[in-house]
Amino acid sequence: MAETANGVVSGGFSAKPATLRDVAALAGVSVATVSKALNGREHVRAETRVKVQQAAEKLNFLPNVLAQGLLSGRTGTVGLLTSDLVGRFSLPVMMGAEDAFGAGSTSVFLCDARGDGIREQHHLHALLSRRVDGLIIVGDTTNPRESLGQHLPVPVVYAYAPSLDERDMSVVSDNVGAGRQAVEHMVRSGRSRIAYIAGDKEFLAARDRAEGAVQALHQFGLPLMGDEVMYGAWTESWGRSSVRALIDKCPDIDAVICGSDQIARGVLDALRESGRTVPDEVAVMGHDNWELLATQARPPLSTIDMNLELVGRKAAQLLFAAIEGTAEPGIHSISTRLLARDSTARG
Amino acid sequence: MAETANGVVSGGFSAKPATLRDVAALAGVSVATVSKALNGREHVRAETRVKVQQAAEKLNFLPNVLAQGLLSGRTGTVGLLTSDLVGRFSLPVMMGAEDAFGAGSTSVFLCDARGDGIREQHHLHALLSRRVDGLIIVGDTTNPRESLGQHLPVPVVYAYAPSLDERDMSVVSDNVGAGRQAVEHMVRSGRSRIAYIAGDKEFLAARDRAEGAVQALHQFGLPLMGDEVMYGAWTESWGRSSVRALIDKCPDIDAVICGSDQIARGVLDALRESGRTVPDEVAVMGHDNWELLATQARPPLSTIDMNLELVGRKAAQLLFAAIEGTAEPGIHSISTRLLARDSTARG
DNA sequence: CTGAAAGCGCTTACAG
DNA sequence: CTGAAAGCGCTTACAG
């Protein structure tokens, strides 16, 4: 690595970052004084403080957080380990966590395990050996997952997918409540002949959302049209084929609740093509508030937002409390939020 | 923080992680010997090595990479700073970078600046003070962006959105080439009356892709149907409205190339609703290979994959070389890859 | 083959 | 108000 006269390496970046010692030398004081001056400790003459600050500025000094961490035992870093390849769930969770930690001291770093156990172990290892203060594990489905165990050197919060071990802390989206919200909204919009098209039955999220809807229908004394929840896949094509079967069987439905926005998009398309108008004849709801899909639907799709930022926020709060020594084990559930767009406007 | 007899803190996680000293004490040797034994250095008796390894295992010892970094000046960490809220571009880039660095030594940590300059500075600061060995900056559009400057203490690679400063290293997707690929594919599939529906003209990506297509049409001696590139928005609704205008004006088109998969979805829908069959009468192409949209389209959408993993790979390689002292400034372009699905099958 | 010592960049009592 | 010294967890010459 050729070093030029002014200390710039051939890569175009400046050589070794300045240290406290460099600042001390330039300011003509001791390292200890620089540390105190820069950290706002008392017992430093105002004049000295200014001199030090100027020197630090001039050298572009950034304290080495790693060295600080060696002393304090904290690194101000939290690892977010995800398996969510498209980032649809983990990025909002990460944002919420960042917000909760505040722009201040704690940074959240994301690693992607791509749903691969080996990779998860590798990232876990990398994160722990970099001494993160805590971990947030974000699943790619809401299915409960294996615990990482109780013997990690830092606290762990599971988000979106809860841990199977109830001694762990988990934060999940309230899918049952979401199903209930959807039905309540349909009823408020004057619907009473409601069907439910769910996603893949293998997914707890699919079953929970449907279950909430069925519960609410029951409370309202309303029938579930088609007699049962229709389970299939999280795809538009499942939405299309299932709703065609549905209107064959029950031509008089006036509302369809879907397990996801993708399914709802398929439902909307198939309804339009079979000559039913939405929302006049049939109201349709999705789940996820995947803006890209929901706002561009015809008509724009009413849906349920999982408040993933709040999931992230809560995860961060739990983690922070645990780092401070107060863990709150168990599953913490975050309420969803209904977003009414045109697809469920009063008929 | 109440500590129990077995050294477990009330948070449910084990107390302070074991240090080299703990291992040394347990193994009955010196700290230096432990270090050598664990790092595979020579001059350690096999017997001693085993003893040390067992002690380390027993204590769940993980070396503190931060302390190691203090010595070596390297942390084995690279920061990936993005502004891509949905992660659509940055996650594939991150995966590519991880692959290039290898499962081995270097970890990639992602931070999201949410397109906010203040937040970007904050994350930059956090990353640098944690002494990352390098930075990858991923833009949310292909529009060139401000350089972070030449005075950072570590090398920087800009990915997806290039830096405006040619002294920087940038890796971009070849959008002009993508436009050309699309036309060549259409021609190979027997089309000759080709129109182009682009995204938002404010975006360089929109203009580049269109330009490549126009160039290729010219080379083939073919006209651009509708006489000019139709610029609009990156939405399905723009796809729908634009293609309706297009077939009014030019009823005899046999192919439409779109600036994105979203636009192409709108085009497909509007064509179907106006009674044109795809691909028999009109072929349609998208751009992005956004699986969710492309595979669920009717018919499945031919599109262009930007090979973002390769973008990430290249960025990592450039960064690695720069860390070693060999920077290759300038813009490095990654070729796209055409994915033929049914929407462009030979008519 | 093994260990005492110095030092990476920083902070924190403790003297002066 | 200022600075010398010890120490965080580790590695690396250098003695033994």
Automatic annotation (TrEMBL), chains A, B:
Keywords: DNA-binding, Transcription, Transcription regulation. GO terms for molecular function: DNA-binding transcription factor activity; transcription cis-regulatory region binding. InterPro entries: HTH_LacI (IPR000843), LacI/GalR-like_sensor (IPR046335), Lambda_DNA-bd_dom_sf (IPR010982), Peripla_BP_I (IPR028082). It comes from the Bacteria. SUPFAM superfamilies: lambda repressor-like DNA-binding domains, Periplasmic binding protein-like I. Pfam families: LacI, Peripla_BP_3. Residues 18-72 form the HTH lacI-type domain. PROSITE patterns: HTH_LACI_1, HTH_LACI_2. This is LacI family transcriptional regulator. It comes from Arthrobacter psychrolactophilus.
